[in-house]
Amino acid sequence: MAGPRDGNFRIFHCDLTLARQAAEIAESVRTAQAKRWNSPAATATWTPRCDLYLHPNSRNYAEATGQPEVSPGVSTLANNGTRVVSRRMNLRTNNPLMLTATLPHEVTHIVMADVFIVRQIPRWADEGIAVLAEPIAEQRNRVADLQEPLESGRVFPVGQLMKMDYPDEKDWRLFYAQSVSLTRYLVDQGPPSDSSSSCATRSASAPRPHSGRLPDRRTGRAPQPMASPRAEAARRGHGLEPRCQFAGADNHAMIGRRPGLGLRSALRPEGPPEQSPG
Protein backbone atom coordinates (compact mmCIF):
# COMPACT_ATOMS: atom_id res chain seq x y z
CA MET A 1 0.00 0.00 0.00
CA ALA A 2 1.50 3.33 -1.03
CA GLY A 3 0.84 7.00 -0.64
CA PRO A 4 0.10 9.23 2.36
CA ARG A 5 -2.38 7.78 4.81
CA ASP A 6 -3.69 11.18 5.87
CA GLY A 7 -4.50 12.56 2.42
CA ASN A 8 -7.85 13.81 1.17
CA PHE A 9 -8.18 11.17 -1.56
CA ARG A 10 -8.50 7.40 -1.33
CA ILE A 11 -7.42 5.98 -4.67
CA PHE A 12 -8.37 2.60 -6.15
CA HIS A 13 -6.24 1.59 -9.11
CA CYS A 14 -4.46 -0.99 -11.23
CA ASP A 15 -1.35 1.11 -11.87
CA LEU A 16 0.54 2.28 -8.80
CA THR A 17 2.69 4.80 -10.66
CA LEU A 18 -0.33 6.44 -12.26
CA ALA A 19 -2.19 6.37 -8.96
CA ARG A 20 0.63 8.26 -7.25
CA GLN A 21 0.60 10.85 -10.03
CA ALA A 22 -3.16 11.26 -9.71
CA ALA A 23 -2.91 11.59 -5.93
CA GLU A 24 -0.27 14.30 -6.18
CA ILE A 25 -2.20 16.26 -8.81
CA ALA A 26 -5.52 15.91 -6.99
CA GLU A 27 -4.06 17.19 -3.71
CA SER A 28 -2.30 20.06 -5.48
CA VAL A 29 -5.44 21.12 -7.36
CA ARG A 30 -7.55 20.82 -4.20
CA THR A 31 -5.17 23.10 -2.29
CA ALA A 32 -4.92 25.69 -5.06
CA GLN A 33 -8.64 25.83 -5.86
CA ALA A 34 -9.70 25.89 -2.21
CA LYS A 35 -7.49 28.92 -1.62
CA ARG A 36 -8.56 30.58 -4.85
CA TRP A 37 -12.28 30.29 -4.16
CA ASN A 38 -12.19 30.62 -0.36
CA SER A 39 -13.46 27.08 0.22
CA PRO A 40 -13.49 25.53 3.71
CA ALA A 41 -11.22 22.87 2.16
CA ALA A 42 -8.41 25.44 2.43
CA THR A 43 -8.23 24.98 6.20
CA ALA A 44 -9.71 21.55 6.83
CA THR A 45 -9.18 18.02 5.56
CA TRP A 46 -12.05 16.18 3.93
CA THR A 47 -14.07 13.85 6.09
CA PRO A 48 -15.05 11.66 4.42
CA ARG A 49 -12.24 11.61 1.92
CA CYS A 50 -12.91 11.57 -1.80
CA ASP A 51 -12.82 8.09 -3.32
CA LEU A 52 -11.09 8.21 -6.71
CA TYR A 53 -11.43 5.16 -8.98
CA LEU A 54 -8.96 4.94 -11.87
CA HIS A 55 -10.38 2.50 -14.41
CA PRO A 56 -7.82 0.89 -16.73
CA ASN A 57 -9.94 1.05 -19.90
CA SER A 58 -13.20 2.29 -21.34
CA ARG A 59 -14.99 -1.04 -21.02
CA ASN A 60 -14.17 -1.42 -17.35
CA TYR A 61 -15.21 2.17 -16.71
CA ALA A 62 -18.54 1.74 -18.52
CA GLU A 63 -19.34 -1.55 -16.80
CA ALA A 64 -18.62 -0.13 -13.35
CA THR A 65 -20.41 3.19 -13.77
CA GLY A 66 -23.11 2.62 -16.37
CA GLN A 67 -21.75 5.57 -18.38
CA PRO A 68 -20.91 5.53 -22.11
CA GLU A 69 -17.40 4.33 -22.90
CA VAL A 70 -16.52 7.71 -24.43
CA SER A 71 -17.29 9.58 -21.21
CA PRO A 72 -13.98 10.60 -19.58
CA GLY A 73 -15.29 10.63 -16.02
CA VAL A 74 -18.19 10.87 -13.61
CA SER A 75 -18.38 12.31 -10.09
CA THR A 76 -20.87 11.86 -7.30
CA LEU A 77 -21.57 14.07 -4.29
CA ALA A 78 -24.08 14.06 -1.46
CA ASN A 79 -24.76 16.47 1.39
CA ASN A 80 -27.11 16.45 4.36
CA GLY A 81 -27.87 20.17 4.39
CA THR A 82 -24.94 20.90 6.70
CA ARG A 83 -21.91 19.26 5.16
CA VAL A 84 -20.81 17.05 2.29
CA VAL A 85 -21.18 13.42 3.37
CA SER A 86 -20.00 11.61 0.24
CA ARG A 87 -17.41 12.35 -2.45
CA ARG A 88 -16.52 10.06 -5.32
CA MET A 89 -14.89 10.27 -8.76
CA ASN A 90 -14.58 7.63 -11.48
CA LEU A 91 -12.12 8.34 -14.30
CA ARG A 92 -10.90 6.21 -17.19
CA THR A 93 -7.14 6.19 -17.53
CA ASN A 94 -7.07 5.80 -21.33
CA ASN A 95 -8.33 9.38 -21.61
CA PRO A 96 -5.24 11.42 -22.69
CA LEU A 97 -6.51 14.47 -20.79
CA MET A 98 -7.28 12.63 -17.56
CA LEU A 99 -4.43 14.07 -15.47
CA THR A 100 -4.17 17.48 -17.10
CA ALA A 101 -7.81 18.51 -17.63
CA THR A 102 -10.44 16.04 -16.42
CA LEU A 103 -9.01 15.47 -12.94
CA PRO A 104 -8.48 19.19 -12.16
CA HIS A 105 -11.97 20.00 -13.49
CA GLU A 106 -13.65 17.37 -11.34
CA VAL A 107 -11.64 18.17 -8.21
CA THR A 108 -12.69 21.81 -8.55
CA HIS A 109 -16.37 20.82 -8.65
CA ILE A 110 -15.91 18.89 -5.42
CA VAL A 111 -14.04 21.78 -3.79
CA MET A 112 -16.88 24.15 -4.69
CA ALA A 113 -19.43 21.79 -3.16
CA ASP A 114 -18.03 22.74 0.25
CA VAL A 115 -18.78 26.41 -0.46
CA PHE A 116 -22.39 25.90 -1.53
CA ILE A 117 -24.08 23.51 0.87
CA VAL A 118 -27.57 24.92 1.41
CA ARG A 119 -27.94 26.90 -1.81
CA GLN A 120 -26.80 25.27 -5.03
CA ILE A 121 -24.11 27.01 -7.03
CA PRO A 122 -25.51 28.20 -10.39
CA ARG A 123 -24.80 25.87 -13.28
CA TRP A 124 -22.91 28.42 -15.36
CA ALA A 125 -20.74 29.44 -12.43
CA ASP A 126 -19.94 25.88 -11.40
CA GLU A 127 -18.88 24.89 -14.91
CA GLY A 128 -17.08 28.17 -15.59
CA ILE A 129 -15.06 27.91 -12.39
CA ALA A 130 -14.16 24.27 -13.11
CA VAL A 131 -12.98 25.11 -16.64
CA LEU A 132 -10.64 27.74 -15.19
CA ALA A 133 -8.80 24.84 -13.52
CA GLU A 134 -8.06 23.28 -16.93
CA PRO A 135 -4.94 24.07 -19.00
CA ILE A 136 -4.94 27.37 -20.90
CA ALA A 137 -5.15 25.51 -24.22
CA GLU A 138 -8.38 23.82 -23.17
CA GLN A 139 -9.81 27.14 -21.96
CA ARG A 140 -9.01 28.69 -25.32
CA ASN A 141 -10.83 25.86 -27.07
CA ARG A 142 -13.92 26.69 -25.05
CA VAL A 143 -13.65 30.38 -25.87
CA ALA A 144 -13.29 29.59 -29.57
CA ASP A 145 -16.70 27.90 -29.44
CA LEU A 146 -18.23 31.31 -28.75
CA GLN A 147 -17.02 33.09 -31.89
CA GLU A 148 -19.59 31.84 -34.41
CA PRO A 149 -22.62 32.24 -32.08
CA LEU A 150 -21.55 35.82 -31.32
CA GLU A 151 -21.21 36.65 -35.01
CA SER A 152 -24.61 35.15 -35.80
CA GLY A 153 -26.36 36.53 -32.73
CA ARG A 154 -27.16 33.02 -31.51
CA VAL A 155 -26.32 33.35 -27.81
CA PHE A 156 -28.21 32.99 -24.56
CA PRO A 157 -29.29 36.31 -22.99
CA VAL A 158 -27.23 36.76 -19.83
CA GLY A 159 -30.32 36.73 -17.62
CA GLN A 160 -31.41 33.41 -19.11
CA LEU A 161 -27.93 31.91 -18.78
CA MET A 162 -27.80 32.79 -15.09
CA LYS A 163 -31.13 31.12 -14.33
CA MET A 164 -31.01 28.09 -16.58
CA ASP A 165 -30.34 24.43 -15.93
CA TYR A 166 -28.36 22.52 -18.54
CA PRO A 167 -29.62 23.18 -22.10
CA ASP A 168 -30.56 20.82 -24.89
CA GLU A 169 -27.77 18.73 -26.39
CA LYS A 170 -27.42 21.00 -29.42
CA ASP A 171 -26.51 23.93 -27.15
CA TRP A 172 -23.92 22.21 -24.94
CA ARG A 173 -20.89 23.87 -26.50
CA LEU A 174 -22.53 27.30 -26.44
CA PHE A 175 -23.53 26.87 -22.79
CA TYR A 176 -19.97 25.99 -21.78
CA ALA A 177 -18.46 28.78 -23.88
CA GLN A 178 -20.74 31.45 -22.42
CA SER A 179 -20.34 30.11 -18.90
CA VAL A 180 -16.57 30.30 -19.13
CA SER A 181 -16.68 33.75 -20.72
CA LEU A 182 -18.96 35.19 -18.02
CA THR A 183 -16.99 33.59 -15.20
CA ARG A 184 -13.72 34.90 -16.60
CA TYR A 185 -15.23 38.39 -16.89
CA LEU A 186 -16.30 38.38 -13.24
CA VAL A 187 -12.92 37.07 -12.11
CA ASP A 188 -11.21 39.89 -13.99
CA GLN A 189 -13.30 42.44 -12.08
CA GLY A 190 -11.78 41.56 -8.72
CA PRO A 191 -10.43 38.89 -6.37
CA PRO A 192 -11.62 35.37 -7.30
CA SER A 193 -12.96 34.81 -3.78
CA ASP A 194 -15.31 37.75 -4.29
CA SER A 195 -16.28 36.42 -7.71
CA SER A 196 -17.34 33.06 -6.31
CA SER A 197 -19.68 34.83 -3.89
CA SER A 198 -20.87 37.04 -6.73
CA CYS A 199 -21.69 33.97 -8.81
CA ALA A 200 -24.10 32.87 -6.11
CA THR A 201 -25.68 36.19 -5.19
CA ARG A 202 -26.35 37.26 -8.78
CA SER A 203 -28.34 34.22 -9.79
CA ALA A 204 -28.91 31.69 -7.02
CA SER A 205 -32.02 33.56 -5.87
CA ALA A 206 -33.74 32.59 -9.10
CA PRO A 207 -35.27 29.08 -8.99
CA ARG A 208 -34.06 26.53 -11.53
CA PRO A 209 -35.42 23.10 -12.38
CA HIS A 210 -33.45 20.22 -10.90
CA SER A 211 -32.50 17.58 -13.42
CA GLY A 212 -31.74 14.13 -12.09
CA ARG A 213 -30.71 12.77 -15.49
CA LEU A 214 -28.17 14.58 -17.61
CA PRO A 215 -27.02 13.66 -21.13
CA ASP A 216 -23.38 12.88 -21.64
CA ARG A 217 -21.61 15.87 -23.17
CA ARG A 218 -20.16 13.81 -26.02
CA THR A 219 -22.96 11.36 -26.75
CA GLY A 220 -26.20 12.98 -25.66
CA ARG A 221 -27.12 9.81 -23.75
CA ALA A 222 -28.56 10.07 -20.27
CA PRO A 223 -26.33 8.53 -17.58
CA GLN A 224 -27.35 5.22 -16.10
CA PRO A 225 -27.38 4.42 -12.37
CA MET A 226 -23.80 3.90 -11.20
CA ALA A 227 -22.68 0.93 -9.16
CA SER A 228 -21.19 1.83 -5.79
CA PRO A 229 -17.87 0.38 -4.56
CA ARG A 230 -17.67 -2.93 -2.77
CA ALA A 231 -18.02 -2.87 0.96
CA GLU A 232 -14.56 -4.38 1.22
CA ALA A 233 -13.10 -1.64 -0.95
CA ALA A 234 -14.86 1.01 1.08
CA ARG A 235 -13.27 -0.31 4.24
CA ARG A 236 -9.76 0.12 2.88
CA GLY A 237 -9.07 3.61 4.13
CA HIS A 238 -5.45 4.33 3.28
CA GLY A 239 -4.20 6.51 0.45
CA LEU A 240 -3.66 4.27 -2.55
CA GLU A 241 -5.42 0.95 -2.92
CA PRO A 242 -3.33 -1.35 -5.18
CA ARG A 243 -6.17 -3.63 -6.29
CA CYS A 244 -8.75 -3.26 -9.04
CA GLN A 245 -12.00 -2.93 -7.13
CA PHE A 246 -14.56 -0.82 -8.89
CA ALA A 247 -18.04 -2.26 -8.53
CA GLY A 248 -20.32 -3.71 -5.91
CA ALA A 249 -23.83 -4.02 -4.59
CA ASP A 250 -24.01 -1.72 -1.57
CA ASN A 251 -26.09 1.39 -2.33
CA HIS A 252 -25.16 4.90 -1.28
CA ALA A 253 -26.76 8.32 -1.63
CA MET A 254 -25.75 9.87 -4.94
CA ILE A 255 -27.06 13.37 -5.55
CA GLY A 256 -24.75 15.29 -7.86
CA ARG A 257 -23.77 13.24 -10.90
CA ARG A 258 -21.25 14.61 -13.36
CA PRO A 259 -20.94 12.69 -16.61
CA GLY A 260 -18.39 13.89 -19.11
CA LEU A 261 -16.15 16.79 -18.14
CA GLY A 262 -17.88 17.91 -15.02
CA LEU A 263 -21.56 18.02 -16.04
CA ARG A 264 -23.48 17.98 -12.80
CA SER A 265 -26.98 17.56 -11.53
CA ALA A 266 -28.50 19.15 -8.47
CA LEU A 267 -26.63 19.24 -5.19
CA ARG A 268 -29.35 19.62 -2.64
CA PRO A 269 -29.90 18.81 1.03
CA GLU A 270 -31.17 15.27 1.55
CA GLY A 271 -32.80 13.34 4.30
CA PRO A 272 -32.20 9.60 4.54
CA PRO A 273 -29.77 8.40 1.84
CA GLU A 274 -31.39 7.22 -1.34
CA GLN A 275 -30.22 6.09 -4.75
CA SER A 276 -30.14 8.83 -7.35
CA PRO A 277 -32.15 8.11 -10.49
CA GLY A 278 -28.99 9.00 -12.44
Give an account of the 3D structure.
There is one protein chain. This protein has ten helices and six strands; from the N terminus they run βαβαββααααααααββ. It is α/β, with parallel strands linked by helices. The radius of gyration is 18 Å and the shape is globular.
Output mean pLDDT: 74
Poorly predicted ranges (pLDDT <50, ≥5 residues)? 1-5, 200-239, 241-278
Q: How many DSSP H or I helices?
A: 10
Taken in chain order, the helices and strands follow as EHEHEEHHHHHHHHEE
Output the structural class: alpha/beta
| Strand ordering within the main sheet | 5-1-2-4-3-6
The oligomeric state is: single chain
- Separation of termini? 33 Å
Strand content: 5-15%
Gross morphology is globular
Secondary-structure topology with pairs:
Layout: E1 9-12, H1 16-36, E2 50-55, H2 58-65, E3 73-79, E4 84-92, H3 98-113, H4 123-131, H5 136-144, H6 147-152, H7 158-163, H8 172-189, H9 192-203, H10 231-235, E5 240-241, E6 256-259
Parallel strand pairs: 1-2, 1-5, 2-4
Antiparallel strand pairs: 3-4, 3-6
Helix pairs in contact: 1-3, 3-4, 4-8, 5-8, 8-9
Summary?
The chain is of the alpha/beta class. It is about 40% helix and about 10% strand. It has 10 helices and 6 strands; from the N terminus they run E-H-E-H-E-E-H-H-H-H-H-H-H-H-E-E.
